[in-house]
Each structure stands twice: as C-alpha cells, then as structure tokens.
Amino acid sequence: MTSSSPLFTNATATSTWNSLLSSSFPTAIRFHHLRAEMSLSEASSPLPLPPLPEKRIILGCGGLGQDYLATVASFPKPDEKIRSTSIMVQGGGNAGNALTGAARLGLKPRLISKVANDGPGKGLLAELEADGVDTSYIAVSEEGNTPFTYIIVDNQMKTRTCIYTPGHPGVEPDDLSQSSLLSALDGARIFYSDVRLPEIALVIAKEAARMQVPILVDAERKREGLDDLFNLAHYVVCSEKLPQAWTAAPSIASALLSMLVRLPKLKFVIVTLGENGCIMLERNTSEDPEAEEMDVDSLLESLKQKIDGTKTIPTCISSKPKLRLSADGVGTVCGRLLVGTSEVVPPSELIDTTGAGDAFIGAILYAICADMSPEKMLPFAAKVAAANCRALGARTGFTIEMDVDDAVTLHVLSRPVPDDGKLAHSDFFNSFDDDFDDSDIA
C-alpha cells in the first residue's frame, strides 16, 4: 500500500470507518479497574499469582500495526463472495501485543517502534497509552503509512489468515538517539525483541548487555539479525519449527540442547507447540560432575508419558535438576527439561488464535520480573494464552488481574456480552465465583 491510499492516510476517513464499525457491530467490553484496563473473556478458574515485582519497567522493540479482523463462517474459495459474521479494528504487531498483555498484568512497558502520522498510527498510540504502555519512544513519520494487517478468522476450521502490509518509511538509525536509548533502558528489568526491527534491536541489545539488563528474544522464524540477537540473549521463546531450522538438529529436544551449547549466555529456551503445550530447557548455573547423564530425547519422551491427559488445566512436568543432558553430535549441558501442557479450550469457546503467542510472551515477561519458578511460569503463560483464544483479536481476550489480600489473582470470566455492550460495576463483581468478595479488594 502506497502513501497515496486514501483509506490509510486520511485520518478523517479512517475515523469514520472506525466509528461505523463501533456502531454497527458488538464490541469488546472495556473498563478500568486498579492498574489495568481489561476486556472480558471466557476462560476457566482463578490462578494465584505472586505480588507485583518491585522492578516493573520493561523495554520492548518490534512490530506494531493496525489489525483489520473479519470472521467468516468458512474460508472463501477463489473468486467467491462471502459475508463476514463480525468485524473488528484493533492494534496488533508482536511487540505491541506482548507489551499490552504485560501492561495489563501490571508491568510498566516502554515500546520502541514506528508508525506514520495517519489515522491508524494515531489510533495505535492512543490505544497503547490507554493500556499503560509508554509510547514516548515510538518514532512517528509525517509521511507514508502505518503497518497494517488484514486477518480472516475461519469459524469452521478455527484458523486465521494474515495479509501483512509493512509500514513506510521503515525504522532508521536517527529514529532513536543515544540519549533516548539510555532513557528507555533506565530502570528496565528486561529488554524484549521480536526481531521485527533487527538493526535497531541490536543497538538496544548491545547497550542492554553493557548495562547488565537481561534480554529476551521472541524467535518466530529465521530472520535477518536473529543470530546477532541470539548471541546476546539470556532467554529465548520460539515457535515450533525454529529450533531445528536454526540448528539443523534431528529433533526438537536435541535442537534445544544445541541452542544452549551454542549460546553460552542463554539461561533457558522455550519452544511453544500450540495446543500441544511447550517444552523448556533450563541451564543450571553450576556444573555438577557427579550429576546423572541422560539423553535429552529419551528424557523428553519419559516426561511426556507422565502427562495426565484427563486434565484440562495447564500443568508442568519437570525432570530432576542438575542432570547432564546430552545428544549425539551436539554436546552436553547441565540443566533440566520441563514439559508444559496447554489449557484445553472447548470448541464452543475457541474464537480466534490471533495473538496467542504474544499473550504467552507477555506472561513470560511478567513471570521473569516476578521471579516465578518455571513450574509456575509455564502453566501461567499457557492460561493467559488460552484466555486470549476466547475472543476475537490479539488483545481483546487478555486476562483480568486484581489485587486480593496483597497478592495478584488472575480471574477470567465466562459471561455473555450484553446487547448494549455495557456491564455494570456490580454485575462485574457478581460474575466471579461465590467465594470472591469485592470488599477484599485493596
């Protein structure tokens, strides 16, 4: 899309379009409570969380754009005309989504990205600011267009198809001065990159490393600049195909081991497997020459055998700590292997998987800041991702958090959206389990 397109460069036209959507279709319920602005979504039982960490500032760099979502009864055939069953305009982009989720859980994210000074760009900034994301480090171009994505959500097959249009102009070195970089990293607990803006992300990562700020890399696929960011990373969360594609190892388990062997700074790597959960390999900081040695592929199979297939809530199964994990032709690492299961979302509740991975990342960022153990972190992230699948769009289903008895409790609702799109304050509290009392809120 060029900058001459009237739909994306004319702010008045875009505002009119968004207003039309808002008045013509049911929208997600949004409200303010305590630290977060949350939308209601269907999910399961409350999940206890530790108190909010003292260091809550996080810095992210990466994708940000406008999502135009349309649900259809079934994916169209070529040259076929069909009607949408619902439609939504919402902020998107991996980094934008992940940091929105982190903000709603109580962190204080700062985002480095770029938009144009058009209708979508202005809307994105306003949406992020409303959710508590610091947008002061986002570059705004007076010309060009903001990135955007058309998303078709297929109700029959439960798939989503994305058609992405990059923003123009792209990020340039002058978009982030040295003083702004230092300011953005000041007080940050962690730096996160989705590898969408590799050149500027590498500049930030090098400075973060110098300042001893931990780095998390979200690796969806092999991209330009990924190797350089991996070499600086302390944590990696990646998609199912990435480990073997990056290492050429014969299995996922041996690929994870290879990543820890090749990346000595890496503390853990997590590979997400969608409805099949996730696998995590954690390095032990102290070598134990007397530790038991195990083949990592055999260990993974033994852990999978312990999964209780009757459980619908996320669980975590861990190997013994301080094992010497090995694989033929790869090497050996002292650590442990963990398998996390996903939450079983009934077909009647599964709406849209858009942004589920970003929700998972947002929860991992929170867990790192809160010093959560892997045994708690993996089920927590799985539950947040599952909640996000119960609503249309990448941000609508992010979970609700509240302060209860000096601890954060994650509550998710199962409640139909009223026709008028409104929910009274008393209705909100009454829709929790009977043992929840709104008088306990700090």
Tell me what the structure shows:
With 442 residues, the chain is α/β, with parallel strands linked by helices. It is 29% helix and 25% strand. It is built from 13 helices and 22 strands. The protein has helices at 6-9, 11-24, 94-104, 119-130, 178-185, 198-210, 226-230, 242-247, 252-262, 296-305, 356-369, 374-388, 425-430; strands spanning 30-33, 36-39, 47-49, 57-61, 65-72, 86-92, 108-112, 114-116, 139-141, 148-154, 159-165, 190-193, 215-219, 235-238, 268-272, 278-283, 293-295, 316-318, 323-327, 331-340, 400-404, 407-411. The strands form five sheets. Strands 4, 7, 12, 13, 14, 15, 16, 17, 18, 19 and 20 form an eleven-stranded mixed β-sheet that branches. A four-stranded mixed β-sheet has the order 6-5-10-11. It is globular. 45% of the residues are buried. Mean pLDDT is 82; it is low at 1-46 and 400-442.
What is the rounded Rg? 22 Å
Q: Roughly what fraction of the amino acids lie in strands?
A: 25-35%
Major sheet summary line: 11 strands, mixed
Average pLDDT for all residues? 82
Fraction of residues in helix: 25-40%
Q: Which word captures the global form?
A: globular
Q: How many β strands by DSSP? A: 22
Unreliable stretches, pLDDT < 50, 5 or more residues?
A: 1-46, 400-442
What is the end-to-end distance? 49 Å
Number of helices: 13
Structural category is alpha/beta
